[in-house]
Every structure is written in structure tokens, then in C-alpha cells.
Write a structure and sequence with these properties.
Layout: H1 2-21, E1 25-30, E2 34-36, E3 40-50, E4 55-56, E5 63-65, E6 68-73, E7 77-81, E8 86-96, E9 101-105, E10 109-112, E11 115-118, E12 122-127, H2 156-181, E13 185-190, H3 197-211, H4 220-238, H5 247-254, H6 260-278, H7 285-302, E14 316-321, H8 325-357
Parallel strand pairs: 2-12
Antiparallel strand pairs: 1-3, 3-8, 4-10, 5-6, 6-8, 7-8, 9-12, 10-11, 13-14
Helix pairs in contact: 2-8, 3-4, 3-7, 4-6, 4-7, 5-6, 6-7
Length: 358
């Protein structure tokens, strides 16, 4: 009886151990058992485990074994099995070798819950390319140089550089010539000749005569214009601001320059104008003509004598300015940029032509 109980316990222990051992399986396979030197093979590592466990795959930095290089390690591919109770994880390793030999690839270690599990060992045969040294004439010699077909799209940049090269060269010559000349900037300005005060006054009086503003209902316009012309003339002729002075102040100031007889008619003009502007006085037609004649007479009597040998005033003057430093700096920078472009574009054009024809 005791033996049967002991045997039952041992059997259940073995069954539980097998179930636990089968809960994690590690499998490795290689897609090609033999390759040529430099070709690639792929190792697929598969791990099946419970979904609540975590697996750590091996990581190889350079080589799997000596002379077998690891080129790439893919990302793990995870699949759920048995109603998401189990996991199947795949990871691929791309390997190659440049030495012909038969290589033993040891089992790959996978850690599950910090416990190692191992795959089966693999083998890889690497062959070298056979060379027939007894018949060297059968080797293929070097091929002749083949020029690619001309594609215009590849030459757009070169054509643009060629087309711009000549204009930029001409611009460079012009800029160098300008900066070497260093000539000042010469500018001509047209000058209107300045008319004497009495000529300007007579022209304004002729304008007033043509307008005949005294024939209108309000004679204030006529006398305002006429007295303003006389005031401007007095200011230009005698050198004081008659526009800002009263009629009496102007007369008193003029008495310092002329006799009373010359200013008598002008005084009558100012008095009539003040009556029209401030007292609403309406003068007669002959008064208007008389005051106009008085203004012309005053201007003619007081005008400056013309000098016989007076120099003619220039109608055009020449202004000479030195070229500013800023302009010189701009010219220098433009020259440097133009030279840089010419050199770079020339090197680029020569390189493109050489690479195409050689």
C-alpha cells in the first residue's frame, strides 16, 4: 500500500515537471544551410510561452561566432495562441561570412523569467567561388567605358551657369571700372533765373488787370490783390516785411527812403484799400483805374537801376559730390560676389563636362 502511494506521488511529480518544462519551447532554424562567400542567410528564432511571461532574446553586436557576422536583427513579431493564453514570438537574424568553412552555430539562449532556455544547434557551410587557374583566357576581361544617354534634365543647372557666366563677367568688368575710376558724382540742376522785384510786381498787376476783379460786386478782392502785390514788392525792394505791417507803418518806413511826392499816390492807394476792406466803401470806376496807375507809377519810380555790365545769371549749375564710403563698400562686395560666382560656376561646368566625357 505504501509502495503504491509512493509510486503515485512520483508519477504526478514527473507529469507536473514535464508540463512545466513544456510551457516554454525554443526553436531555431536557418533558411539556407550553405551559401557563397558574401551571401546572406537568415536565422529565425521562435519562442512559445505563456502570455503572462516575459522573454529576453539574445543580442549579438558583431558576430554570432568567429567569421560569421550578424548584419541585422529584426524587431520581434508576437502572436497570441490558445485564446490569448500563449504567446509565439519570432525574431530574425541576418548573417553572412567572408571565409569559406563549415561553421557550427551554437544553441541560442533565451531568458524567460531569468531562466535560460536553449534552441538546437545549427550549421552553416560557406563556399568560395571556384577559380579555374588552368584556363585564364576564359576569364572575362574589363568592359569598355559606356557613356550614358544624354538627358537634358540633368544639364539644366550647367546650361544656366553657362548662360549667366557672360553677363556676370560683363558686370564684374563694369564694377571694377567704376571702383577704379573713383570719379565724383556730377549732377546738373536747372536753375530758373530770378526776376527783379519790379518785373515780378508788374507781371502780377497785369494779371489783376486781366481778371478785372474790380468789376465784380465785391471790390475787396481787387484791392486785396493789388495791395498784396505792392507789399511784396516793397519787401523785396527795400528789405523789410511789409506784409506784416499796417498801411501807416509802411508809409512811415518808406519816408526814410523816398521823398513825400513819390509816396503820395501810394498813400492814396492804401487809404482807399482800407476803406474798401474795413468800411465797406464802394469806389468809383475811375478810382480803381487811378489806384492801379498809382501802383504802377510807384513801382516804376522806385525800381532798382539796371546795371549795364551785370553778369547774366546761369540757367544751369553743376553739383559735384564725392562718392560716399557706403557706395564703395557696396561696389567691393558686389565685385567679391561676382568673382566667387564666376569661379564656382566655372569649376562646376568643367567638372560636369569632365565627368560626362571621361
Amino acid at each position: 500500500m505504501k509502495k503504491n502511494i509512493l509510486l503515485t506521488i512520483v508519477m504526478w511529480t514527473v507529469i507536473l515537471f514535464k508540463v512545466q518544462a513544456q510551457s516554454v519551447t525554443v526553436d531555431a532554424r536557418i533558411d539556407s544551410l550553405q551559401i557563397l562567400i558574401g551571401e546572406q542567410a537568415q536565422i529565425t528564432l521562435e519562442v512559445a510561452l505563456d502570455a503572462d511571461k516575459r522573454a529576453v532574446f539574445p543580442i549579438y553586436t558583431d558576430t554570432l561566432v568567429r567569421n560569421v557576422e550578424v548584419l541585422n536583427i529584426s524587431q520581434p513579431d508576437t502572436q497570441y495562441l490558445n485564446d490569448r493564453k500563449r504567446l509565439l514570438i519570432k525574431q530574425e537574424y541576418t548573417i553572412t561570412s567572408f571565409d569559406s568553412a563549415l561553421y557550427y552555430l551554437p544553441p541560442m539562449e533565451v531568458l524567460v523569467e531569468n531562466k535560460p532556455y536553449y534552441s538546437q544547434a545549427l550549421a552553416l557551410k560557406v563556399y568560395s567561388i571556384p577559380v579555374d587557374t588552368l584556363h585564364p583566357d576564359e576569364f572575362n576581361g574589363p568592359k569598355d567605358i559606356m557613356h550614358p544617354d544624354l538627358v537634358w534634365e540633368d544639364w539644366y543647372a550647367t546650361i544656366a551657369c553657362v548662360l549667366l557666366w557672360v553677363p556676370v563677367l560683363l558686370l564684374l568688368i563694369y564694377l571694377i571700372k567704376r571702383i577704379r575710376d573713383n570719379k565724383p558724382i556730377i549732377r546738373k540742376v536747372k536753375v530758373e533765373p530770378k526776376l527783379p522785384p519790379h518785373v515780378l510786381a508788374i507781371q502780377e498787376i497785369d494779371r489783376i488787370k486781366k481778371e478785372k476783379s474790380w468789376l465784380k460786386e465785391d471790390p475787396k478782392v481787387y484791392y486785396t490783390d493789388l495791395t498784396e502785390v505792392v507789399r511784396v514788392y516793397i519787401g523785396n525792394r527795400f528789405g523789410f516785411n511789409a506784409l506784416e505791417m499796417t498801411s501807416g507803418e509802411i508809409i512811415d518806413k518808406l519816408l526814410e527812403f523816398k521823398d513825400k511826392e513819390a509816396i503820395k499816390d501810394l498813400k492814396f492807394l492804401f487809404q482807399t484799400a482800407d476803406l474798401v476792406k474795413f468800411a465797406k466803401y464802394t469806389p468809383l470806376m475811375n478810382e480803381n483805374d487811378s489806384n492801379l496807375i498809382n501802383a504802377i507809377g510807384f513801382i516804376n519810380d522806385t525800381q532798382l537801376p539796371e546795371e549795364e555790365n551785370a553778369e547774366a545769371q546761369p540757367t544751369e549749375i553743376t553739383i559735384i559730390k564725392k562718392r560716399p564710403l557706403r557706395t564703395k563698400i557696396i561696389l567691393a562686395v558686389a565685385i567679391v560676389l561676382a568673382i566667387t560666382y564666376l569661379l564656382i560656376s566655372l569649376i562646376y561646368i568643367i567638372t560636369e563636362l569632365y565627368s560626362y566625357w571621361v
